[in-house]
Design a protein that fits this description.
GO terms for molecular function: DNA binding; zinc ion binding. Pfam families: zf-BED. Keywords: Metal-binding, Nucleus, Transcription, Transcription regulation, Zinc, Zinc-finger. It is found in: Nucleus. InterPro entries: RNaseH-like_sf, Znf_BED, ZnF_BED_domain_contain, Znf_C2H2_sf. There is one protein chain. By secondary structure, the protein is of the alpha+beta class. Among the domains are: about 1-90 and about 125-180, no CATH class; about 185-240, no CATH class; about 255-350, Nucleotidyltransferase, domain 5 (2-Layer Sandwich), CATH 3.30.420.10. It is built from 20 helices and 13 strands. The chain has helices spanning about 115-125, 125-130, 165-180, 185-200, 210-220, 230-255, 305-320, 335-345, 350-360, 365-380, 385-395, 415-425, 430-435, 445-470, 480-495, 500-520, 525-535, 545-565, 570-575, 590-614; strands at about 1-5, 15-20, 25, 70, 90-95, 95-100, 105, 150, 260-265, 275-285, 290-300, 325-330, 345-350. The strands form 4 sheets. Strands 11-10-9-12-13 form a 5-stranded mixed beta sheet. It has a 3-stranded antiparallel beta sheet with strand order 3-2-4, with no helix packed on it. Strand 2 (about 15-20) and strand 3 form a beta hairpin. Helix 9 (about 350-360) runs antiparallel to helix 16 (about 500-520). The longest helix is centred in the middle third of the chain and has 25 residues, at about 230-255. The radius of gyration is 38 Å and the shape is flat. The termini are far apart.
C-alpha cells in the first residue's frame, strides 16, 4: 500500500500521480489529454475535483499505475475573483455583492470580502464549513499530512487487455463514492426553496429539518447537500421568500379594479387574539377570481373600534389598495361594525355568521334533548368497552357495513351539533341495544325525544347547506343570499305542517322569528338587491314581492345613468324574462324549492299572457 504524505508547497504544482515507484507532480498548464485547461495564476475556487484514469507525466511517459489522485483548483478568469467566497455571491456593482441564496446585498468596498464571509458563516454555516473547514483528506495542504491517505497497490489496478469490464466499472464506482463533486450554489439554493415550500404549503414545522427520517431521506437523495437549520429557514430564507411573494402579489392587486375584504377573528391556544384580513378580487384581463391573505395581525390592545380601524388602514396602506376597497365583510360584533364605519368603507355582515347566530339562539328551545344526546356521545367516547360494544351491535345488525363512530359537537360550531344529532338519530337501534347490554350506564332518550331528532335534522339541514355555500371562496355568492333566504323561509313553512312534536314546531317558530330580525329589510339592501337582479339565474324570482323588485330595478337604472352620464333605457321584457334557474343539487336542497317556485311563477305568467291575448 502507498499513501500520500506530502503535497508540493509550490502552488504552481497541483497534480499528484502515485505510481508503484515514485510520486509525480505536474506543472499547471494546458494538459495534453484535454480533460480541462488551466494555467498558472491565482487559485480562486477551492472545490476539490477527483478524476480517475491515465495521466501523462512531465517527461511525456505514461504513468505505470491506473490509479491516481488529482487535486485541482479551477480559475475564474472572467471575474478575477480570488476568494473562495465567490461560490456563493455575485457581484452587483463595484462596491456591492449579492448573496445567491438570500438575494441580500453587502458592501465589498475596497475589495474586502469580510462582510460576505461573516454572512456565510452566520446564515449558511453548513456551506461555510464545507468550504473553509475542509478535511485534510480532501484539500491541498502546504504542510506534510499527519494522517496519510492509504491507496491500494498499483499492481492491483494494472489493466489487462482481457480484464473483465465489470471489474473496471466496480473500481470506478468505488472512486465515485469516495470523490463526490461538491454541490453547486444554484442547486443548494433550489433545494432550500423546495424545502421551504414544503413547510409553507403543507403546514409543516421548521423543526422537520432536524427529524432523523427527513435527514436520512435528504442524505440519500443528495449526499452533499448541507441541510439548513430551522433557524436559518425561519429567519433568513422565509423572510426572503416572503418579500418575493409580497411584491408579486402587489403587482397582481394593481391589476384589480375593486377589492372586497373579509376579516376573521380567532384566538390561539395560548389565548392570543388575532385578526386575519383576506382580499377577494377579479383580475379583469383574464376574468379570474382570486383570494389572498393580506395579513394576520395580533390584537395587542383592547379590541376597540378605533384600534381595529387603525390596523386595517395600516394594512391596506402597506398593500397600496386604499382606493380599491369596495366592501368589507365582518362578523356581527358591534366593534367590528363600528371599525368599518370609521374607515368609510361599505360594510356587510358575514351571512354564514348570521346563520350561526340564528341557529344558536333557536337551539335553546330543544336544549334538554341535546344535553341527553351529548351525555350519550361523551360516554361512548370515554369508554373503549362501550365503543367496541356499539361496533359489535352495528356489525350484527348490518353485516358487511363499516361501523360508524359517534360525533362529538363543538360549542362554537352549530354545524357540529347538527352532525352529532344526525349520527345519533341514524344509530338509534344500535345505541339503545348497546346501552341495554351495558346495563344502562347512561340515561337513554325517551320515545318522544327519539322522534324529535330526525325532525330537528330536517329543519336545520337547509341552514347547513347555505352556510357551506356562502363560505366558499371559489365563486360569487352574494347574489344567492336573497333567493336562498326566501327558499329557507318557504321550507320552514312547509315543514311546520308535517311536524309531529311540539318542540320541533317551537324550533321552527324561533328560527323564523330570529330570521326576520337578522334579515329585516334585506330585500332593500343596495348591494344585495343589485347583485340579485343582475344575476341571470334569479332576477325577479329572488324577491319576495314586486315592490322589492321594483326598488332593485330602479337602483340599477340610477347607477347606470350615473355611470353613463345620460339616461339609459332598460328593456323591461328582457330584464324580467328568464329561464328557470337550474341547480344540480340533492332532493332536499334549498334550491329545489326555489326551482319549484320559479316554475310555478313562469307557468302562471304564461297562462295569464295567453288569456290576455285571447
Amino acid at each position: 500500500m502507498h499513501s500520500i504524505q506530502y503535497f508540493s508547497n509550490d502552488l504552481n504544482y497541483a497534480v499528484i500521480a502515485i505510481s508503484k515507484h515514485r510520486c509525480y507532480t505536474q506543472p499547471i498548464h494546458h494538459q495534453s489529454d484535454r480533460r480541462f485547461a488551466m494555467r498558472s495564476g491565482g487559485l480562486l475556487d477551492v472545490r476539490i475535483l477527483y478524476y480517475m484514469g491515465i495521466w501523462v507525466t512531465h517527461d511525456g511517459s505514461d504513468v505505470v499505475c491506473r490509479y491516481f489522485l488529482l487535486a485541482v483548483k479551477s480559475l475564474d478568469f472572467m471575474e478575477g475573483k480570488r476568494s473562495k467566497i465567490w461560490q456563493f455571491f455575485s457581484k452587483e456593482t463595484e462596491n456591492k455583492a449579492k448573496c445567491d441564496i438570500f438575494q441580500c446585498s453587502y458592501s465589498i468596498k475596497g475589495g474586502s470580502t469580510t462582510n460576505l464571509k461573516k454572512h456565510l458563516m452566520t446564515k449558511h454555516r453548513p456551506s461555510y464549513d464545507s468550504v473553509f473547514s475542509l478535511k485534510p483528506s480532501t484539500c491541498i495542504s502546504n504542510q506534510p499530512s499527519q494522517q496519510p491517505v492509504n491507496l491500494p497497490e498499483c499492481s492491483q489496478f494494472q489493466a489487462s487487455s482481457n480484464e473483465p469490464k465489470r471489474k473496471k466499472e466496480a473500481q470506478q464506482t468505488d472512486i465515485a463514492l469516495f470523490t463526490r463533486k461538491p454541490l453547486s450554489a444554484a442547486r443548494e439554493k433550489k433545494i432550500n426553496h423546495l424545502i421551504l415550500k414544503l413547510i409553507i404549503k403543507d403546514l409543516q414545522p421548521f423543526s422537520i429539518v432536524e427529524d432523523s427520517g427527513f435527514i436520512e431521506l435528504i442524505n440519500y437523495l443528495e449526499p452533499n447537500y448541507p441541510i439548513p437549520s430551522r433557524y436559518m429557514l425561519s429567519s433568513g430564507l422565509l423572510d426572503a421568500q416572503f418579500t418575493l411573494v409580497k411584491e408579486k402579489l402587489k403587482d397582481e392587486l394593481k391589476r384589480a379594479s375593486h377589492i372586497c375584504l373579509t376579516t376573521d377573528g380567532w384566538t390561539s391556544r395560548a389565548t392570543t387574539s388575532y385578526q386575519a384580513v383576506t382580499a377577494h378580487y377579479i383580475l379583469g384581463d383574464i376574468w379570474e377570481m382570486r383570494s389572498a391573505l393580506l395579513g394576520c395581525f395580533e390584537c395587542q390592545e383592547r379590541h376597540t373600534a378605533d384600534y381595529i380601524k387603525q390596523e386595517l388602514i395600516h394594512l391596506v396602506t402597506d398593500w397600496e389598495i386604499n382606493d380599491k376597497i369596495f366592501v368589507c365583510v365582518t362578523d356581527n360584533a358591534s366593534n367590528m361594525k363600528a371599525a368599518i364605519r370609521l374607515t368609510g368603507w361599505e360594510h356587510f355582515p358575514c351571512v354564514a355568521h348570521t346563520y350561526n347566530l340564528i341557529v344558536q339562539a333557536s337551539l335553546q328551545t330543544i336544549q334538554e334533548p341535546i344535553k341527553k344526546v351529548k351525555c350519550i356521545v361523551e360516554y361512548f367516547h370515554r369508554s373503549s368497552i362501550a365503543t367496541k360494544k356499539l361496533y359489535a351491535v352495528q356489525e350484527q345488525l348490518k353485516p358487511g357495513q363499516k361501523p360508524l363512530k359517534l360525533i362529538m359537537d363543538v360549542i362554537t360550531r352549530w354545524n357540529s351539533t347538527l352532525d352529532m344529532l344526525e349520527r345519533v338519530a341514524n344509530l338509534q337501534e344500535p345505541i339503545e341495544a348497546a346501552i341495554g347490554l351495558l346495563h344502562n350506564p347512561v340515561e337513554n332518550l325517551s320515545e318522544n325525544e327519539w322522534r324529535i331528532l330526525p325532525e330537528v335534522v330536517k329543519i336545520l339541514k337547509p341552514f347547513k347547506q347555505l352556510t357551506e355555500e356562502f363560505s366558499s371562496e371559489n365563486e360569487v355568492t352574494i347574489s344567492k343570499i336573497l333567493a336562498g333566504n326566501s327558499s329557507v323561509l318557504r321550507i320552514l313553512n312547509n315543514l311546520n305542517n308535517t311536524l309531529t312534536c311540539d318542540l320541533s314546531k317551537q324550533l321552527v317558530s324561533k328560527l323564523k322569528a330570529e330570521f326576520n330580525i337578522r334579515f329585516k329589510n334585506s330585500s332593500r339592501h343596495q348591494v344585495l338587491s343589485k347583485s340579485a337582479i343582475l344575476d341571470p339565474r334569479f332576477k325577479r324570482q329572488a324577491f319576495a314581492d314586486d315592490s322589492c323588485y321594483e326598488y332593485a330595478k330602479n337602483s340599477v337604472r340610477e347607477e347606470l345613468e350615473r355611470m353613463m352620464a345620460k339616461p339609459s333605457f332598460v328593456n323591461e321584457s328582457e330584464s324580467e324574462d328568464t329561464d328557470s334557474p337550474m341547480f344540480d343539487e340533492q332532493q332536499d336542497s334549498i334550491w329545489l324549492e326555489f326551482d319549484r317556485r320559479t316554475t310555478t311563477m313562469s307557468t302562471t305568467a304564461s297562462k295569464t299572457s295567453a288569456n290576455n291575448n285571447n
